Amino acid sequence: MAEHSAPPTDQLAAVALNNDAPAYESLKAEFSDRVTIRTIVSRPDGGAGLAGQKVRVGGWVKTGRKADKDAFAFLELNDGSCPQNLQVIIEASVADLGQIVPTGTCVVVDGVFKLPPPGKHQKVELRADAVVHVGPVDPARYPLPKTKLTLEFLRDVVHLRPRTNTISAVARIRNALAYATHTFFNNHGFLYIHTPIVTTSDCEGAGEMFQVTTLLSEAERLEKELIKNPPPSEAEVDEARKIVKEKGEAVASLKAAKASKEEIGASVLELKKAKENVARLEERAKLKPGIPEKDGKVDYTKDFFARQAFLTVSGQLQVETYACALSSVYTFGPTFRAENSHTSRHLAEFWMVEPEIAFADLQDDMNCAEAYVRFMCQWLLDNCIDDMKFMAEKYDRTCIDRLKMVSSTPFVRVSYTEAVELLEEAVKKGKEFENKVEWGIDLASEHERYLTEVVFKKPVIVYNYPKGIKAFYMRLNDDMKTVAAMDVLVPKVGELIGGSQREERYEVIRDRIKEMGLPLEPYEWYLDLRRYGTVKHCGFGLGFERMLLFATGIDNIRDVIPFPRYPGRADL
């Protein structure tokens, strides 16, 4: 007998599937009693060879419609394992069609694969024998109707947007790039190091950091507590001190009278309790609502970490400690920037891939960065082509060609000085930039994209930047004007990677920290790496979301991270 409503969740696994066990087991997902849609449609024959096979599938209805006077329904089912849907045909005798056709409904069905009529785009379809689970949807209230939805709209339903074709494709591409990252670095002998989220160092020296503190919540708690249980008055403290004096005099009298040990002991105990009470009262009398201060400034010694702490802007400085012991390391995690920016290229929380290599210089750094980017591009072409085809069709028809070009083309390498000369030459020929071009500027995105999209039409590595626009830890070149820094520029996004050979000379990096107006004390541990067993080393950082923008062709960075955080928004 067919089931028309959803059985309890704990009964789902108990619904037996009468099937050819060996064949079904070879298809079934390892940790779920169903076959993923990817397993079916990604076969060379598109699933046609499975005709006659009984299976269980589950997913969410993309589109559903009744047909033949409500005798049966067609469902386009997707389980997130791939961009393709599976067509499921369910007769009215098997289930309540009105309950299963709305978009967003979750269904698990048992059925038999059949070959569709000639001329249909799908290679196989599923004829349902039973519906073993229904997660219903009220179409009037479901926020994701079948109509085309903008990416801007989807940011307001961030908890449901993974069900859309675009965001699910981005999630699979993001997963593929993360897997490619770990694969690349493991293949080359790097160790994955987990660097801290909470830090006391400002890697960039920019000061745009989120502060981590319990002082505010502690001040609120104290204020409520003092209202409920007010601190003692000065008179109450004086009265308690008077009692201590009296108890002290009593002990002295007993000793003078050569009283028994028991009497003196009991009196001393009373004195001790009186002193403890005074100490408690005096401590409570000091309590004042608000943030603790010392010398007119916030007293961070009273904070959770007993000093100022922040969310990290980079794991680089910390991962260098491991590079200076384990040689080749990398970190891959979230970083944070409290920059009040609303552009399509900025997030408050974003992910960085940051390798660090000991016994290596700027050339090694550029070689590693190029190999890594090319590896990721080839990985998507080899492992994510269906999702990339979706992106090419819906967002950027050149995205696959761009991946092919980058994966197969050696990167151009030019010095910063040469890059500025090329841009100045373009200006002389009539090219107009919003930002002025001159030696010493930090190249703007328009400059970077002009170099990579117009001048060279391929990825470009610009190296040896002016020291005034780069961080203190970058190695000072012999000209004393530039540092051994490099940026990898790619079409579509401009800068994808920023890196450098690190300054390994103690005196030089100490002077650079001072020169930039930073205090030495927070960086003493970093200077220790130069004091004790210093080594030539280099590294870089890749903005993971920028790699997603480059790969997919999507325009706004808020659409390539699962839960975007930016000024005014931190949903979920």
From TrEMBL:
Cellular component, GO annotation: mitochondrion
Name of the protein in question: asparagine--tRNA ligase
PANTHER family on file: ASPARAGINE--TRNA LIGASE, CYTOPLASMIC 1-RELATED, ASPARTYL/LYSYL-TRNA SYNTHETASE
Gene3D superfamilies for the chain: Bira Bifunctional Protein, Domain 2, Nucleic acid-binding proteins
Record domain Aminoacyl-transfer RNA synthetases class-II family profile: where: 329-562
MF (Gene Ontology): asparagine-tRNA ligase activity; ATP binding
Record keywords: Aminoacyl-tRNA synthetase, ATP-binding, Ligase, Nucleotide-binding, Protein biosynthesis
Family: Belongs to the class-II aminoacyl-tRNA synthetase family.
Ranges for domain WHEP-TRS: 236-292
InterPro entries: Aa-tRNA-synt_II, aa-tRNA-synth_II, aa-tRNA-synth_II/BPL/LPL, Asn-tRNA-ligase, Asp/Asn-tRNA-synth_IIb, NA-bd_OB-fold, WHEP-TRS_dom
Superkingdom of the organism of origin: Eukaryota
Keyword Ligase included in the entry's annotation: yes
E.C. code: 6.1.1.22
Record-level GO BP terms: asparaginyl-tRNA aminoacylation
Catalytic activity: tRNA(Asn) + L-asparagine + ATP = L-asparaginyl-tRNA(Asn) + AMP + diphosphate + H(+)
